[in-house]
Amino acid sequence: MNRLTSRLSLVGLAAALSLSAACSSSQRGADPENPYQLDVAVLAANEFYSIPWLVGQKRGFFEEHGVKVGKIVAGSGGSATLRTQLSGDLPIGEVGYNSVLHAAKEGVPLVAVGGGVQNTHGGEYYARKDNDEVNKLADIRSWAYTNPGSSIYALSFMILEEAGLPTKAERVAAGGVGEGVALLEAGKVDVAWLPPTLASRHKDDFKLVVRTHDYVDKFQASVITTSPRFAKDHPDVVKAVLAGYQEAIKWATGNPEETAKLYAAHVDVSYDAALEVVKGATGAVAWNIGFNPESLKSGTKSAELSGLKGGVDYCGLFDGSFLPRGATAELPTDCS
After folding, report:
1. Averaged over 227-244, what is the pLDDT?
2. What CATH number belongs to 124-214?
3. pLDDT for res 11
4. Alpha carbon distance 4, 13 (integer Å)
């Protein structure tokens, strides 16, 4: 998506979100006896991002707080997830942080009410297994990333910078994760970024070259968003969703085997592959419903490398008043 198309799309999103909020404003609130029903849009819903939503849905944690999550609607990327959320009249979604910052700059009425994934777990850089010339970070001369302006693009700079290596390299916009795999298979690039589930399917084809978290750990990958209108009209619904999400994280961490069964059925992978993904995410403490200032600053740096200008109004974009007990709400700036 080019800059003009992106700008026009975000203008449309602003109108869509206003309409979505208006349509939702007359509905009732959260009630465990008669739960408020909603669908949610989730970034990369076939990857580990979906696990807290899936666990909360299947184990009844959302319903205990008075909401019922129906469909977990997949978005194919940060801005695509935002479009899915808004065009589908979905009041709450988990969206790529980078895309949220760009959308807020364009005037899309958004509020970040909860954290999501707050480190770089969930994707590493792989080379072809038969490529003997690429075995470590310093060997890489060409990188495949998903789309212009993506956090994956920015991380290719941040990793090299943290390693003390030159950041100059060939970077190829593949157009998506699958397209990046195709470029890698064809020998057009040295490395491509693969998420865990996809990587588990290609163990015989590719080798891990760069573990992102060895260089960049704290990193705001996603946030849970809604519209200011929906948050004002349905504060108890927003609180219920976040509380259910928090409980789902705790349960998944303590019950990886049962979580893997749910996830395997959801994404149609083997139990062993699903268990590897679940244990990887829980072991990395990937999810956090609250806000972490270091993760936010790192995520903001990624957005700036991807073209964001003018800084971030953290106090205007984030609202920690909906967070459940025990969640942190610390931002990079003082909003008192």
Report:
1. 96
2. 3.40.190.10
3. 38
4. 14
Q: Do domains 3-119+219-322 and 124-214 have the same CATH topology?
A: yes
Average pLDDT over residues 70-74: 90
What CATH number does the domain located at 3-119+219-322 have?
A: 3.40.190.10
65 alpha carbon, distance to own chain's centre: 24
Rounded-to-integer distance, Cα 66 and Cα 137, Å: 48
Strand 67-75 to 206-210 pairing: unpaired
- 13 neighbors 82 (Cβ within 8 angstroms): yes
Q: DSSP for 186-204?
A: TTSSSEEEE-HHHHHTTTT
- By the 8 A CB rule, do 126 and 206 touch? yes
Q: Using the 8-state DSSP alphabet, how is residue 320 labeled?
A: G
Q: 3-state DSSP call for residue 126?
A: strand
What are the residue boundaries of the structural domains of the chain, listed by start? 3-119+219-322, 124-214
Cα–Cα distance for residue pair 82/92, rounded to 1 Å: 10
Please answer whether residues 274 and 261 qualify as being in contact, where contact means their C-beta atoms are separated by less than 8 angstroms.
yes
